């Protein structure tokens, strides 16, 4: 048992190597350490808790100011239980969080040796420029009418990694008050200047004594409002060499057992706040403070009233990005080829009835989707709305045209519907024909299964040109 524990620990040491904050709980040395995973998750949960407080639903047991944001030991499960009264699964939200965390942690794998991806080696301006570029690209991505949310989460994961590293690797926490430090708001925002980094001519640290434990807390000597950060061996920005035997001052190191610059060149020691463990972090005493600021800033990245993502892209995209919508879609897939002419009024009658059944009730869907398809298959239209009056209007306005041969392209319509529908949605398909595009059936079946859609065919015939009468519209379940 003891040996297994030891080997896990050793593995952890290698993984954590250059990292500022450790990537995840399995790489943390001290079990109380805050990792990038913790920091990202708590920051996102608090931002969503705030959104929920401002958008209370009936099921919410206590949605007053502070009731959700102040939940002790907040998790997605606890937040959802409190907000939705146990009625809604947090699974999709948790998946979005996990996605952000994955891309955050991946920066360490992909950019291990690049100081500017870690705010190391006084690459303050360069790291900040990376953040600005990531954020601008993100805003651009989300500005599209149909954004790629996967790409957006990747950009956010990378951005938050840099943001969080700022607090562990630079002297900001020490400079802005140590235990009373505050967040550095202009970080990573295009158009907002940040403080200068100490130039090469200025020594920023004095050498610590033999250990990092308690005698390496007051080693920063950089004066005025200059930012600095530690140099780390093995990265592409190398610490200026000074003989530690004869010189006591020099640039700061990152520090820790895997940073040889911390002992081979003055100033001896380091300033990282990755861990509470004294051997790994010369500034271990500020680890909790750095993590607290990183969490706060992660939260503000989403909810800052001026620069927050929610403010800039709007609540709808914020919800889609973090997958926090509840509810499903009510989807109609309707054949508008000429052969439907006789049946279309009955279809309109039936669909209107389906919409009315739940309109204004707690069972109402989150949104309504109308897909029409014709012949050939490229004439498929998709309309989406959250307003039941819109869908009623669109359904009433449907006209049939063309495509008098049969059978028709119903699977193309179902595919379009399955792509835009929310999980667990009801899909009603109205057609009089057997599908003309059955080669798609496997792909569409897996789409339907994955999203747990309930598809019902409401057939009005099988394209025999012998019409059944309108009141014979009948459901046929497809699972
Ligand atoms: C709701 O939460 C707030 C903030 O935590 C608390 O002060 C208040 O007592 C709670 N109200 C109820 C009815 O539990
Ligand atoms: C978003 O797009 C609109 C035009 O579609 C443009 O006017 C606006 O500047 C864009 N905003 C951002 C942040 O790119
Ligand atoms: C729609 O249904 C109602 C009764 O449910 C019926 O009176 C009406 O004639 C129907 N309209 C059409 C166009 O089928
Ligand atoms: C559908 O495809 C046909 C043939 O490829 C083309 O002539 C027609 O313009 C297309 N219609 C639409 C709505 O794209």
Automatic annotation (TrEMBL):
Tell me the compartments it is located in. Answer: Secreted
Taxonomically, which superkingdom? Eukaryota
What are the start and end residues of every segment in region (Disordered)?
239-276
Source organism: Dreissena polymorpha
Q: From which residue to which does the signal peptide run?
A: 1-20
Gene3D superfamilies cross-referenced by the UniProt entry: von Willebrand factor, type A domain
Instruction: Report domain VWA7 N-terminal positions.
Output: 75-318
Q: What is its main location?
A: secreted
What protein does this entry describe?
A: VWFA domain-containing protein
Sorted keywords for this record are: Secreted, Signal
The Hemicentin-1-like von Willebrand factor A domain sits at: 329-469
The record's InterPro entries line, in alphabetical order, gives: HMCN1-like_VWA, VWA7, VWA7_N, vWFA_dom_sf
On whether Phosphoprotein is a keyword of this UniProt record, the answer is no
């Amino acid at each position: 048992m003891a040996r297994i524990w030891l080997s896990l620990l050793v593995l952890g040491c290698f993984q954590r190597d250059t990292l500022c904050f450790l990537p995840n709980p399995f790489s943390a040395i001290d079990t109380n350490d805050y990792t990038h995973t913790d920091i990202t998750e708590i920051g996102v949960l608090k931002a969503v808790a705030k959104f929920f407080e401002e958008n209370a639903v009936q099921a919410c047991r206590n949605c007053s100011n502070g009731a959700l944001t102040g939940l002790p030991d907040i998790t997605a499960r606890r937040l959802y239980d409190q907000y939705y009264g146990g009625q809604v699964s947090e699974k999709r939200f948790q998946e979005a969080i996990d996605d952000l965390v994955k891309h955050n942690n991946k920066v360490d794998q992909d950019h291990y040796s690049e100081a500017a991806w870690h705010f190391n080696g006084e690459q303050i301006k360069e790291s900040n420029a990376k953040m600005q570029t990531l954020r601008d690209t993100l805003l651009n991505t989300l500005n599209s009418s149909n954004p790629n949310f996967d790409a957006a989460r990747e950009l956010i994961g990378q951005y938050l990694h840099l943001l969080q590293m700022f607090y562990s690797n630079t002297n900001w926490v020490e400079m802005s008050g140590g235990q009373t430090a505050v967040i550095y708001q202009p970080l990573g925002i295009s158009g907002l200047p940040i403080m200068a980094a100490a130039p090469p001519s200025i020594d920023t640290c004095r050498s610590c004594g033999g250990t990092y434990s308690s005698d390496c807390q007051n080693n920063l000597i950089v004066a005025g409002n200059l930012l600095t950060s530690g140099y780390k061996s093995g990265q592409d920005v190398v610490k200026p060499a000074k003989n530690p035997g004869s010189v006591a001052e020099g640039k700061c190191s990152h520090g820790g057992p895997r940073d040889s610059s911390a002992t081979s060149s003055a100033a001896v020691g380091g300033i990282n706040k990755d861990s509470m463990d004294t051997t790994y972090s010369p500034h271990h005493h500020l680890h909790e403070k750095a993590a607290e600021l990183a969490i706060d800033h992660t939260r503000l990245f989403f909810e800052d009233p001026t620069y927050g993502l929610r403010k800039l892209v709007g609540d709808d995209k914020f919800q889609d990005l973090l997958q926090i919508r509840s509810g499903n879609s009510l989807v109609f897939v309707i054949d508008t080829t000429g052969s439907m002419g006789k049946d279309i009024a009955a279809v309109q009658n039936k669909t209107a009835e389906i919409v009315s059944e739940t309109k204004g009730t707690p069972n109402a869907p989150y949104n309504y989707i109308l897909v029409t398809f014709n012949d050939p298959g490229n004439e498929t239209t998709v309309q989406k709305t959250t307003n039941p009056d819109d869908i009623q209007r669109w359904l009433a306005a449907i006209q049939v045209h063309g495509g008098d041969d049969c059978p028709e392209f119903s699977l193309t319509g179902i595919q379009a519907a399955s792509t835009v529908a929310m999980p667990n949605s009801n899909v009603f398909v109205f057609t009089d024909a057997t599908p003309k595009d059955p080669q798609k059936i496997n792909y569409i079946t897996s789409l339907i299964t994955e999203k747990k859609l309930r598809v019902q065919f409401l057939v009005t015939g099988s394209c025999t040109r012998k019409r059944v009468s309108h009141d014979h519209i009948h459901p046929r379940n497809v699972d």
